[in-house]
Write a structure and sequence with these properties.
With 565 residues, the chain is mainly α. It is 76% helix and 1% strand. It has a single domain, classed as Hydantoin permease. A two-stranded antiparallel sheet has the order 1-2. The longest helix has 41 residues. The relative contact order is 0.17.
């Protein structure tokens, strides 16, 4: 039997729906107990800036777009080098049983604990040393996130004509978001209609972008994006973050719907083998599980859950759809990416026979093509669906380029959301580090923002053999990101154990992810040593030392509590 994209899509979506209807309900009732009557921190500490009671629909949009950045797109596009089946299984099973549980749990305990971050909760669950180590780990990870996403967005703006055409629409979206934020804040009206109008204006502006493409250097965009992230992270959440994320949530849902509809309508066969590999590819274990990070489980999500989202939750019951539901949304994005790469690249090569090769059978080639694979394959799927639907005989490359511009706008829109969310979260972590270490100047938001931005910028400025260090950060980011998830799961285990709730549904994933990540750090160290990447060796060593320390502290605490009992 020939596997088709529509069959893969149906299997994945049905599994996600069942996960939400049954598994999340079980977790909500038996483990997380979200029906407790508590006053959320958004109401208790309402300051109109960070703590703001927010409708679950708006907050879902913020959370969804904050976690659904470039990572669930880039990861599957690289991991497809091992074949579509391993990627598909890890995304579907990992999302339902590990990733969504992690996000849901982190959000619940943060809301129950006055909006405290997972690092802050580490102190309560274990001790202050763990809190400090956890904060250091999170801050370093935030620098990696900012560096990778900034470099990714800057590359998308400069990659081809479609990137140049996306410049004006993206900037118009920011302006629309600011106006929308002021309108909703002043009038207190439902944001649905204004956000839909803003989305229509955004897509109409694509016409302007196509007429007036703007070509600027990648260095310009790197500095511009860091300045944008700094400013956006300091503004009150209602002024830019919430309205832009609400617009982007519609945009992301629309894009996902169009992708899945095009897959189902055209029903393309798979052009990537079910299992494939090359002798030069890294081992599928453990690298599959860190290459596909955010599409299955991501430690960064715990930071968003406990960093910004928990401070806006209006009702504890809302955590189910926001925490578990948004992760299913990201899993759907990773699933769509996998199917698009599996089925759409062949269609793209058919449209552009003179284009450079899209060989996705090796890790290195897939990694080099990661920013091209998604927009090209999705645009090809949409292109063929439109041609078939409207019986267009004379195809046009301009139509394909316009569709690719649309896809790139979607990618940049929610990737930019991750940028300022990560900057804001990093600032929160630096403030907490200042509180934990009694270093007062770290508590200042402007100082915290500077310390959030500058190291990430340095990671992109430093070069290795004439190439930006940012090109080598993905394996380190993946391992760090997944390890943070494991550490967050460890905090969840101790949190619920202290309340007499023992559950292997959290402990099992924690052990599995921890083993994967430690193996990855060891292998990364070997690779960086062989290639003489001194900066990466130092960062990898610091992170590995922090991990070992945290795990030892966790084991010691567990044994101590068992003796007391």
């Amino acid at each position: 039997m020939i596997m088709t994209g529509s069959l893969l899509a149906i299997i994945g979506i049905v599994f996600f729906i069942c996960g939400y209807l049954f598994y999340s309900r079980f977790l909500a009732k038996k483990l997380f107990k979200i029906y407790d009557n508590i006053e959320p921190p958004s109401k208790k500490f309402n300051d109109g800036k960070d703590y703001v009671p927010t409708s679950k629909h708006i907050l879902f949009g913020h959370h969804f777009t904050s976690i659904a950045g470039l990572a669930p797109i880039l990861g599957p596009c690289i991991a497809i080098c091992w074949g579509w089946l391993p990627v598909f299984l890890w995304i579907v099973l990992g999302t339902v049983f590990i990733g969504a549980v992690h996000d849901f749990g982190a959000l619940v305990i943060s809301v129950k604990e006055k909006g405290r971050s997972v690092a802050d909760l580490a102190e309560k669950a274990i001790n202050n040393r763990v809190r400090i180590m956890f904060l250091l780990f999170v801050i370093i990870l935030s620098w990696l996130v900012l560096a990778i996403f900034t470099n990714g967005i800057a590359s998308l703006f400069t990659k081809n004509i479609s990137g140049h055409q996306a410049v004006i629409p993206i900037n118009i979206e920011i302006i629309l978001s600011i106006f929308m934020g002021y309108y909703i804040h002043k009038t207190k009206k439902n944001p649905l209609i204004p956000s839909i109008i803003a989305l229509v204006v955004l897509y109409l502006s694509i016409i302007i972008g196509i007429k007036f493409p703007i070509e600027l250097s990648i260095n310009f965009w790197i500095y511009f994006l860091f300045i944008y992230s700094a400013i956006a992270s300091i503004l009150p959440v209602w002024q830019l973050l919430q309205p832009r994320d609400f617009i982007n949530s519609h945009q992301l849902i629309l894009a996902l719907s169009l992708i899945f509809l095009s897959i189902i309508f055209s029903n393309p066969p798979t052009t990537i083998p079910m299992i494939q590999g090359d002798s030069q590819n890294p081992s599928i274990f453990p690298f599959l599980f860190i290459t596909v990070a955010c599409g299955a489980i991501s430690g960064f999500h715990g930071l968003v859950s406990s960093g910004t989202t928990s401070k806006q939750v209006k009702n504890l019951k809302d955590t189910r759809i926001i925490g578990y539901g948004a992760m299913l949304g990201e899993g759907s994005l990773a699933l769509a990416t996998t199917i698009a790469a599996t089925c759409g690249i062949g269609l793209y090569i058919g449209i552009n026979p003179d284009s450079h090769s899209h060989d996705l059978s090796t890790f290195s080639s897939a990694a080099n093509l990661k920013l091209d694979t998604f927009p090209n394959s999705v645009a090809a799927l949409l292109y063929h669906s439109i041609i078939d639907l409207f019986s267009i005989k004379n195809s046009s490359i301009e139509l394909f380029n316009g569709l690719r511009t649309f896809v790139i706008i979607v990618m940049i829109s929610f990737a930019a959301t991750t940028l300022d969310s990560a900057t804001r979260i990093c600032r929160f972590m630096i403030k907490e580090l200042g509180e934990a270490t009694k270093i007062n100047f770290l508590k200042n938001k402007y100082t915290g923002t500077l310390f959030s931005i500058f190291p990430a910028l340095m990671l992109l400025i430093i070069e290795v053999d004439g190439v930006s260090l940012g090109k080598f950060l993905w394996p380190l980011f993946g391992a760090s990101n997944q390890m943070l998830a494991a550490l967050t799961l460890m905090i969840l285990v101790f949190y619920f154990n202290a309340r007499g709730i023992k559950n292997f549904l959290i402990l099992g994933p924690m052990i599995f992810i921890s083993f994967i990540c430690i193996s990855s750090f060891v292998l990364n160290f070997t690779n960086y040593t062989i290639n003489h990447h001194l900066v990466l060796i130092i960062i990898n060593s610091i992170l590995l030392a922090l991990i070992v320390w945290l795990i030892v502290e966790g084991i010691y605490h567990y044994k101590k509590t068992r003796v007391k009992k």
